[in-house]
Specification:
Blueprint: E1 3-12, E2 15-25, E3 30-34, H1 41-49, E4 56-61, E5 64-65, H2 70-76, E6 77-80, H3 92-102, H4 109-119, H5 135-147, E7 153-157, H6 165-179, E8 183-187, H7 191-197, E9 200-205, E10 208-214, H8 215-224, E11 226-233, H9 238-241, E12 249-254, E13 257-262, H10 265-278, E14 282-290, H11 293-301
Parallel strand pairs: 3-8, 3-9, 6-7, 7-8
Antiparallel strand pairs: 1-2, 1-4, 4-5, 9-10, 11-13, 11-14, 12-13
Helix pairs in contact: 3-4, 4-5
């Protein structure tokens, strides 16, 4: 395993930011690490990279314990922090030279720097001071420094924060390319990114893992829970309608219109038609309403997904 987390806990006084979580990430996987603000994502990532010591539990990266062998771990990990700390007074190329020196790349430094500048699309900005760059280009500099030493594992905390739509596509493609030969664990608030890039998703809420599954399985979960919006011509007796065995929940939307949740939409659709016929009611409209991955996330965490980068 590239990353192995076992019974990992982080406490701040009486508060447990991370509560005895365990998971593994294999080489070549791109795994989305999701959760609402304050769920414990960044804290967990900092413990995986060795920047933060756990209160209990263990983390190993490429077989090295983060506490027993911190330097071995850091040689193998590229980390883009959520705040993306950069030296604003340094020029882009100068900063990457500094980073390459930290990783002791030696003669490999110069070609690797030029490769990272090209890969992250910084050619036109490389002569500028970092402080003069837009937020999106600062994010690219952060990605370049995270990858400059050929790490086996990439930990990316909100990697597309501040990028415009064109940059989003470019960075997503870059991460997917990297993921073919490296292990990538990334956090994001944007479900479209998860569906575009990740093969698997881990969802954390209030320090606890509430889901760990493939994107396909989560999509299947979403499709299993769907609704029908039905409008009848005439007054509906709610008590009678609630007797439909395929019905999970019923909500009145007004004007003889109802939202009906079910795990068997086809069966419910047939049952409604038979019920309407037996009650001498006409159906004016019937529309399917499938739950999205965002709604599955909200159900698991009790929070609305934020379609933004924070």
């Amino acid at each position: 395993m590239s990353i192995k987390v076992a019974q990992l806990t982080k406490e701040y006084g009486a508060q447990k930011a991370v509560n005895s979580i365990s998971f593994e990430v294999k080489a070549g996987e791109i795994v989305g690490f999701l959760g609402p603000n304050g769920a414990g994502k960044s804290t967990t990532m900092k413990m995986i990279t060795g920047y933060l010591a756990p209160s209990s539990g263990t983390v190993s990266v490429c077989g090295f314990d983060t506490q027993a062998k911190p330097m071995e771990v850091r040689r193998r990990v590229g980390y883009l922090a959520e705040a993306n700390p950069l030296y604003y007074d340094l020029y882009v190329r100068e900063y990457l030279e500094f980073t390459a020196g930290i990783h002791q790349l030696g003669k490999l430094a110069k070609p690797r720097i030029e490769e990272m500048i090209a890969v992250t699309g910084l050619e036109r900005e490389a002569h500028k001071k970092i402080g003069a760059l837009s937020k999106g280009y600062k994010q690219r500099v952060g990605l370049a420094q995270a990858m400059i030493h050929h790490p086996e594992v990439l930990i990316l905390d909100e990697p597309t924060s501040g990028l415009d739509p064109n940059q989003l596509v470019e960075i997503r493609e870059l991460i997917m390319t990297i993921g073919k030969e490296k292990t990538v664990l990334l956090s994001t608030h944007i479900m479209q990114e998860v569906q575009a890039m990740c093969s698997r998703v881990i969802i954390i809420n209030r320090g606890n893992i509430v889901a760990d599954d493939t994107v396909a399985a989560l999509k299947a979960t979403a499709s299993q829970h769907s609704g029908l919006i039905v409008q009848f011509e005439g007054t509906v007796q709610e008590g009678s309608l609630r007797k439909l065995k395929e019905l999970k929940s019923l909500t009145a939307l007004g004007a003889n219109t109802w939202r009906m949740e079910t795990s068997a939409p086809d069966a419910l659709r047939k049952a409604i038609m038979q019920w309407a016929l037996s009650n001498d009611l006409a159906i004016l409209s019937m529309q399917s309403e499938a739950n999205s991955l965002e709604e599955v996330f909200r159900d698991l965490t009790g929070n609305a997904v934020q379609e933004r980068v924070s």
